[in-house]
Amino acid sequence: MNKESVVLVGMPGAGKSTIGVLLAKELAKDFVDTDVLIQLREDKTLQQILDETDYMNLRRIEGEVLQDADLPNCVIATGGSAVYSEPGMARMRELGPIVFLKCSADELRRRIHNYETRGIAKRPEQSFADLFAERQALYERYADITVECDAKSQEVILSELKSQLD
Ligand SMILES: Nc1ncnc2c1ncn2[C@@H]1O[C@H](COP(=O)(O)OP(=O)(O)O)[C@@H](O)[C@H]1O
Ligand SMILES: O=C(O)C1=C[C@@H](OP(=O)(O)O)[C@@H](O)[C@H](O)C1
Ligand SMILES: [Mg+2]
């Protein structure tokens, strides 16, 4: 049996957590959301971590969680800021292919209306457009597979993703 994992990366709102669960079910793999691993390890919500410290601390913790990940045979939904940790992403690559769920800025704005309060690990004054541009390059750098997700149902994305994995 193939014990490889599949790692999903992309902007907040790209669908990593929701598509990840569906993909895990279809591939008969476990599902892990690294945001949940961070919260369990810290015994705090992501928002609490951001409120009590800062975005760099959240990124640091996320990097450690990714580096320590022992997650064979899983679909792994990472947080949008996972790509700031080079060692964390190196560990993800050991576990399996990295899939970039790619959405345009307009599509993300349609899906997510609470960018200021959603707990994004960004500089306080950083605009969404600036964050989008900065991150795009990082997702592209790490992606083995890219799935364009604009204006597609979750079912269509899932089937395109599965055929690219085959
Ligand atoms: N293909 C899609 N089309 C429209 N909305 C979607 C799609 N995929 C996910 N969503 C919605 O976008 C929001 C963010 O999804 P989520 O899986 O939490 O993203 P992420 O984990 O990448 O931040 C959710 O409300 C989800 O239902
Ligand atoms: O992009 C980000 O900076 C973040 C995205 C969140 O995950 P999702 O991408 O699943 O929303 C979560 O990891 C954290 O709040 C920071
Ligand atoms: Mg998520």
TrEMBL record:
Keyword Nucleotide-binding: yes
Binding site for Mg(2+): S17
SUPFAM superfamilies: P-loop containing nucleoside triphosphate hydrolases
E.C. designation(s): 2.7.1.71
Cofactor note: Binds 1 Mg(2+) ion per subunit.
Subcellular compartments: Cytoplasm
Cofactor: Mg(2+)
Keyword field: Amino-acid biosynthesis, Aromatic amino acid biosynthesis, ATP-binding, Cytoplasm, Kinase, Magnesium, Metal-binding, Nucleotide-binding, Transferase
Record flagged with keyword Ligase: no
Catalytic reaction list: shikimate + ATP = 3-phosphoshikimate + ADP + H(+)
Positions of substrate binding: D35, R59, G80, R135
Residues engaged in binding ATP: G13, A14, G15, K16, S17, T18, R123
A molecular function GO annotation: kinase activity
EC class (word): transferase
UniProt superkingdom: Bacteria
The protein's annotated pathway: Metabolic intermediate biosynthesis; chorismate biosynthesis; chorismate from D-erythrose 4-phosphate and phosphoenolpyruvate: step 5/7
Short name of one Pfam family: SKI
Function: Catalyzes the specific phosphorylation of the 3-hydroxyl group of shikimic acid using ATP as a cosubstrate.
Known partners and oligomeric status: Monomer.
Record family assignment: Belongs to the shikimate kinase family.
Protein name (Swiss-Prot/TrEMBL): Shikimate kinase
Organism of this sequence: Biformimicrobium ophioploci
